[in-house]
Amino acid sequence: MKFLRENWIALLLLLVAVVFLAVGICRGEAEAVWQKAVRICMECIGLG
After folding, report:
1. Would you say residue 15 has pLDDT above 90?
2. Coil, strand or helix at 46
3. How confident is the model at residue 47 (pLDDT cuts 50, 70, 90)?
């Protein structure tokens, strides 16, 4: 319990981050980020 009392702000922020990640994945944002990353990578390598 001492750990929770001392680090409640960090745990709260971690929980908020997990919720935001889940919302982004549900909205399909992960696919958009993946497509942009592939496009940038292909441009850097010169294959695209």
Report:
1. yes
2. coil
3. low
pTM listed for this prediction: 0.62
Q: Among the listed ranges 1-5, 13-17, 34-38, which one has the minimum average pLDDT value?
A: 1-5
Any residues with CB less than 8 A from the CB of 24 and at least 6 apart, and which?
Answer: 30
Range of the domain at 10: 2-45
Tally of structural domains, the chain? 1
Cα distance between residue 8 and residue 27, in whole Å: 29
Q: How far apart, in Å, are the Cα atoms of 32 and each of 4, 17, 21, 24, 37?
A: 36, 19, 14, 10, 9
